[in-house]
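pasting for ref
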Amino acid sequence: MNLVLSRESIYLLESILEKELLCNGVDHAFIIDTAGTLISEGGKLPMEDILPLAALSAANFGATEKMARMIGEKDFSLLFHKGTTHNIHLSRINKDFILVALFGNDVAIGLIRHGSNKAAEQIIPILTNEEDSLGGLH
């Protein structure tokens, strides 16, 4: 899948990540497609760490989708990995995109879930408009 975003759309996506997640204590947030391609990102981590995380996040969702089907579920829309000091929250935006938030234990998971839901609501129309302007993703 190839998605081409306008500068305005990129700015809007970065603004949403900032407002809904980064301003609430998230260390880094990014949007990927289901193949692991980075769409938009913001935060403190260097890009050389984000690109492998993006690919692994997509693979993680793919693996859990297979697990879900094995137990009679269509999919799992949310994944959460808790570490001793760092956590990863992954949520499906729609069938094609995933939102990933990296944060410390000093941030409440409820705040992350709320911010991710609010972000997803705002992200979907932006990505959908870009798809529509291309006549669908190619």
